[in-house]
Amino acid sequence: MSVALLSLAGVALDALLGEPRRWHPLVAFGVLAERLERRFNRPYGDGALGWRSHGVTAWLLAVLPLTLLAWALSLLPQIGWLVEVLALYAALGLRSLGEHALPVARALRDGDLGEARRRVGMMVSRQTAELDEAGVARAATESVLENGSDAVFAALFWFAVLGAPGVVLYRLSNTLDAMWGYRNARFERFGWAAARIDDLLNYLPARLVALTYALLGQTRRALRCWRSQAPQWDSPNAGPVMAAGAGALGVRLGGPAVYHGNLHARPALGEGDEAGAGYIERALELVRRGVWLWLLVLAVGSYLHA
């Protein structure tokens, strides 16, 4: 079965079922990751927590066995294609993205700022209790653009390149980055490998996503924002994605935000209007149209290859 049909099947399952409410495989993987971190994240020689080599070992033990299992199962006759589809379905989060973002937009439209803050707090790691309406809308729009890349497009990319083992490798690596990739005393050394590997796996997909956003929105503005604003962003992959996405939508994002009690002077992203509820919905629609574009490109590629 062609990668285009398998990808379409995985996207369709995500649209129909959404994320599993019970027995989600990533929940079990998170438990495994916590146990590995407790086992391997030990004090360094100078008394600080964490060894880089221990972080590499923990990453290998967490990711490689499951990736090899996905590879072996995908080779099984008769059911290998089903393993491929289920692996992609488990890695995708397109429907979940809408289920988190749209309630924020609805709360803003209803004038319920408290509910909007609560809802957006489920999407982002910044403090949301003091955000005004524009701040809530900026946070939600940024999250849609960035998570569209991480939870949707990058999964499709690695599935198209390497099938089930590729998408499993990517999703587990991305999960470990979310759990271990912090720049703090606990994870600065131990989580170094998880953060760097995730950056590497996202490097090409993120730039394809930025190009996708640009093509489907205000192209010249998106490319200009990508070129001028992305280099100022801390993350080498989130910068292009959010700068191009903000430019494509014609909205102003970025700016200062409070994380864990500390004010971060983030650079501006995009240009145009102040963020509002409508831009959350437009960002989600941009991601959805991008998925259809990618599926079309995969279909054309499969046809030409055949």
From TrEMBL:
Pfam families: CobD_Cbib (PF03186). Its main location: membrane. It is a multi-pass membrane protein. InterPro entries: Cobalamin_biosynth_CobD/CbiB. NCBIfam families: cobal_cbiB (TIGR00380). GO terms for molecular function: ABC-type vitamin B12 transporter activity; threonine-phosphate decarboxylase activity. The gene is cobD. One of its GO terms (cellular component) is plasma membrane. It comes from the Bacteria. This is Cobalamin biosynthesis protein CobD. Keywords: Cell membrane, Cobalamin biosynthesis, Membrane, Transmembrane, Transmembrane helix. The chain crosses the membrane at residues 56-74, 151-170. Pathway: Cofactor biosynthesis; adenosylcobalamin biosynthesis. GO terms for biological process: cobalamin biosynthetic process. Belongs to the CobD/CbiB family. It is found in: Cell membrane. The keyword Transmembrane helix applies. Converts cobyric acid to cobinamide by the addition of aminopropanol on the F carboxylic group. The keyword Membrane applies. Signal peptide: none annotated. It comes from Zestomonas carbonaria.
